Amino acid sequence: MKEQIHTVPVNEAFESGDECPFCQLRRKAEQSAIRYALGPGASYMEPDVRGETDRQGFCGEHMKKMYDYGNSLGSALMMQTWLNIFLEELDKQMDHYELPAKRSLFRKKSDAPDSLADWLSRRTGTCYLCAKIDYNMERYIATFFTLVKEQEFRDKVASSKGFCLGHFEALLKAAPEQLPNAQREWFYDTVFRLMRENLARVKGDLDWFIEKFDYRNASADWRNSRDAVSRTMQKLQSIYPADPPYKNQ
Ligand SMILES: [Zn+2]
Ligand SMILES: [Zn+2]
After folding, report:
1. Which long-range contacts (C-beta less than 8 Å, at least 24 apart) are formed by 21-25?
2. Is 221 among the domain residues?
3. How many structural domains does the chain have?
4. Is residue 244 part of a domain?
5. Would you say residue 243 lies in a domain?
6. Which letter does DSSP use for residue 70 in this model?
7. Do 115 and 99 contact (CB within 8 A), yes or no?
8. Which residue range is the domain that position 83 belongs to?
9. Does residue 80 lie within any of the structural domains?
């Protein structure tokens, strides 16, 4: 089975006590994609990889992470060949550009699409790293829905801290297709309970974090609230804001 190689990391993520096991899997997938692209293997020098980076480019968020990772020569080489192709295409696009007519009340929007702007948005709207990460995340979600057939895994899910909103959404979208019939009730009961309980818990930590700024609570215990801001940000937007930049060792 193709999902087999993913069962170990998925099991580990559900044992980790993270605010969202899928965030943790995504972080690992992202770091390994960055390491693959720019790390010691120098795969950016392989023609098939460069073909893909030339085609897909990188999003702004990942350019920043590539910048932080180091190996600026690697980033420079990939941007150089991306630009070689892009500049040729841009020339053609601009050569054939027709001035759009001023928008009138009687002309439908679809009559004259602004093709250069559309082309630009397509050309800058894809990312080699996002695509690699998305591919892995789809496999992890599929593995989750395979593993829920096992009681042992269901117990791990039931005692986890639930999911961030984005990965809750991803599970809900995949469930109608991928959730085995026998686990339907278990899944919705458990996941809804986890989301209710754990969002309330994190909100409670955040409330206490704020209370701690009251001088009357200055000497009170922090309880679990010291990192409440970063954990709340993760629950809301699937990020680890406290992570240091991931760097080439
Ligand atoms: Zn998540
Ligand atoms: Zn990206």
Report:
1. 21/160, 21/163, 22/137, 22/140, 22/141, 22/163, 22/164, 22/167, 22/170, 23/164, 23/167, 23/234, 23/238, 23/239, 23/240, 25/136, 25/137, 25/140
2. yes
3. 1
4. no
5. no
6. -
7. no
8. 2-100+114-237
9. yes
* Segment 168-211, tens digit of pLDDT: 999 999 999 999 999 999 999 999 999 999 999 999 999 999 99
Residues 111-132 have pLDDT tens digits of: 556 789 999 999 999 999 999 9
64 Cα–ligand 2 center, Å: 10
Q: How far is the CA of 62 from the centre of ligand 2 (A)?
A: 5
Closest ligand, as measured to the CA of 126? 2
CB 81 within 8 A of CB 47: no
CA angle at 235 for the pair 151 and 57, rounded to the nearest 5°: 100
130 alpha carbon – ligand 2 mean position (Å):
4
Residues near ligand 2 ion, CB 5 Å cutoff: 59, 62, 127, 129-130
